[in-house]
Amino acid sequence: MEASNRIKIFNGTAIGPNSLLKDACVLIENGKIIEITDKNIEFSNAEVIDAKSKYISPGFIDIHVHGGGGHDFMDNTLEAFLGIANTHAKFGTTAMMPTTLSCEKDDLLKTLDLYAIADKQNFNGASFIGLHIEGPYFSMEQRGAQDPRYIRNPDEEEYKEVLAYSKDIKRWSAAPELNGALAFGKYMQQHGIMPAIAHTNAIYEEIVKALDYGFTHATHFYSCMTGVTRRNAFRYAGVIEAAYLIDQMTVEIIVDGVHLPAPLLKLVYKIKGANKTALITDAMRAAGMPPGESILGSLKDGLKVIVEDNVAKLPDRSAFAGSVATTNLLVRNMMELADVPLIDAVRMASLTPAEIIGIDYKKGSIEKGKDADILIFDQHININNTILNGKSVYTSNPKPIVLNH
Prior knowledge:
By secondary structure, the protein is of the alpha/beta class. It folds into two domains: 6-58 and 365-404, Urease, subunit C, domain 1 (Roll); 60-356, Metal-dependent hydrolases (TIM Barrel, Alpha-Beta Barrel), CATH 3.20.20.140. It is built from ten helices and 25 strands. The strands form six sheets. Strands 1, 2, 3, 4, 5, 22, 23, 24 and 25 form a nine-stranded mixed sheet that branches. The longest helix has 15 residues, at 105-119. Residues 398-405 have low confidence and may be disordered.
């Protein structure tokens, strides 16, 4: 992604991981943050952005997103990849992990091909930070809106072939209780890929065992996973209880205001905290679009869904089919529904997801040397400016940006 050479942002409150900096001045050069201070220092030959007393925030990082703006990554077109990235950048996402759905291997390989092509041409949208494969190694009972035609146990020959095919895969979600899942997790771990727990019928004891094979993260926590359950009359703790009890486990939550009610958002924050909880959209193609009929997955072979009540549902209303949220809405909802302080809500959408996927050395906070992924927004998290790698790609009002010769 090309970067503007020099940018100065001033007259705003910068949001750090643990504190706020009033009257902040942020200097950017060649796509990197080179200074953050409370002094309005001169910076010649730079674009100057007056934050107008609004917040200066690290960009939001979405580690689980399927689509937006009428597109899905599994449409397998360059237009779809770039359209999704551009759509979400307007709402504060500066980095995203394109996510697949359960499908045939050939369709998955096409998605991997398109990722590699789109990544080189993504100049104005949220940066791609690796692919997230969601499925098809899931529990049929916990499949949710995943297409049952493709649900299957881990196939060693298949996943090894997929990993050999592409180096862009950074995360793969699966059900750890399935036959072959532990070997799958170990293989992912050995190749620097995060295996995540998803669409699972596992009980606590199975999760404890899976930890040693790399399964330390819970995909869309609470959705399509077990809580307390009974087997042969005996009660067992499920994945939800395991995630709460095991300190090293991280979770991600869909904070669209529908998937999880306010009491559960408060419970997650109280027990796991901002350092172990990432906010995700899990957005499908209808994000940023009006309500009505839509498609989950590819246009060619996806599932028909209906968007109503600010969420996508299966046509029979038996299950949610992905959210239509944007990242600024996630932060706003954590503050308004769960009473989470601004600093922590922003951390859960920036530094925490960066830490979970191992890119916090370059993204997730406003610090010297990190990528200049920066937002300016008001107290309601309405996005005024999006800066990606030191390049202004969105502004709700172009007037604040002027050249300072």
